[in-house]
Specification:
The protein is mainly alpha-helical. The chain is 61% helix and 0% strand.
Length: 143
C-alpha cells in the first residue's frame, strides 16, 4: 500500500494544477486507508522498525512534501502547510471516520472536505503553532 501511495504521489508531481494534485493525492490516500483500516495501524506500529518500511515512509514523505510545496507556491493551500501535516491529516481522517465506516462507507469524504476547507488560504489567519517535524517512526517511550 505504501508503494500504491508512492505511485499516486509521484504521478501527481507533474499535474498542471498543484492544488488539485494535492487534493487527488489526499483523496486517494484516505481511500486506501479506509479500504484497509489495518494499514494505518500496522504502519504506525512495530512494522515501522523494519528498515524497508521506514525507507518507504521516508520516500513517501519526501514526495508528499514536494506535492505540498507546489500547492503552497500556487497559493492553493495555507503557506505553513507541510507534507508531514498532509500525511498525518490523512491518517487522522481515517481514524475520525472509522466508527462510521461499517454503516456509512463514504463518511470519510465528509471529513476530508472539512480538512480541505481548513487547508485553504481563505481565512488569512496564520496558525499559532509551529509545524511538526517528520512523521515519527516510533511511538514515544512511556514515562
Amino acid at each position: 500500500m505504501l508503494d500504491e501511495l508512492m505511485g499516486t504521489a509521484t504521478a501527481l508531481l507533474t499535474a498542471d494544477d498543484p492544488g488539485v494534485a494535492l487534493r487527488r493525492f489526499m483523496t486517494a490516500g484516505v481511500e486506501i486507508f479506509c479500504r484497509d483500516r489495518a494499514f494505518c495501524e500496522v504502519v504506525g506500529r512495530p512494522s515501522v522498525q523494519h528498515p524497508q518500511v521506514r525507507d518507504a515512509i521516508d520516500r513517501l514523505c519526501d514526495v508528499v512534501e514536494t506535492l505540498t510545496a507546489r500547492a503552497r507556491e500556487q497559493g492553493a493551500v495555507r503557506p505553513e502547510l507541510t507534507g508531514t501535516d498532509v500525511v498525518l491529516l490523512m491518517s487522522g481522517i481515517q481514524h475520525t471516520a472509522a466508527p462510521l465506516l461499517a454503516a456509512e462507507p463514504q463518511a470519510w469524504r465528509r471529513y476530508l472536505e472539512l480538512v480541505f476547507d481548513g487547508l485553504t488560504t481563505r481565512s488569512g489567519r496564520v496558525l499559532p503553532y509551529p509545524p511538526p517535524g517528520r512523521v515519527p517512526l516510533t511511538e514515544p517511550a512511556s514515562r
